[in-house]
Design goal:
Layout (H helix, E strand, L loop, with lengths): L1 H15 L4 H13 L6 H5 L8
Length: 52
Amino acid sequence: MILTQLEEFRQAIYDNLGKVRDAVFDLMDAVLTSPSIQSFVSLSENPVFRRS
């Protein structure tokens, strides 16, 4: 049940972000899975950040 609520929450946010939604979600996932954040460059090196 909690997983379903999380999926619905993420989908609602995704639907309301417009054209930048994929980039924002990649960045958000990188922030949430990084053990430490030194800079924006270090976030772009995170494997879940798929943008190049």
